[in-house]
């Protein structure tokens, strides 16, 4: 997970830079419209392979070919894949995160919003979106937009590997029934703000897509959906690949 920032407001980037410079207690505060404020230690973005949850380790095992790591943060996934011999490009919208990844040895880094990655930037065999990384799309509308944009980035036979969560449990009443406004926005569209020291970031949207709605949107966009695993926190790992007929249409459109 790496949140959206402007060049002037980058609390995540500053926290990562401070941690990189030796301030090991650097901690962000995360505010949302669905839960109490929570601390987010910068150290979380610097985890080693064996500090990562099982879903992330599984995703790294499932990577293939040329990898595009979206929302790279401090580069923990990109560095692990580099060590395994993969060619990896890691992108993040945070300027500070990009500087940290460069300092840590990620060979190919760029500062991008995920929607601004140009198709001519290359074809990737794996688009990697970890740490609830599918949330980078922001909203269900953003999910639909991203699934179409991803077709311009994927090589033939390419895959999207991502994690997301069902947060419906946040809306349970005392009897376990779900209580939310059916006429309002999708309950998994969350608004966040990050603070670090005296710096407040700009508000951004993050999507937590339950498995059924992710499957609906992906299939409508022409993808095959394979849920690889789920953990005790209702977070899942999914693989999306273009259906053969859609991939053929996609290639014909490019030729």
UniProtKB/TrEMBL annotation:
One of its GO terms (biological process) is methylation. InterPro entries: SAM-dependent_MTases_sf. The lineage of its organism: Bacteria, Pseudomonadati, Bacteroidota, Cytophagia, Cytophagales. GO terms for molecular function: methyltransferase activity. Keywords: Methyltransferase, Transferase. Transmembrane segments: none annotated. SUPFAM superfamilies: S-adenosyl-L-methionine-dependent methyltransferases (SSF53335). This is Class I SAM-dependent methyltransferase.
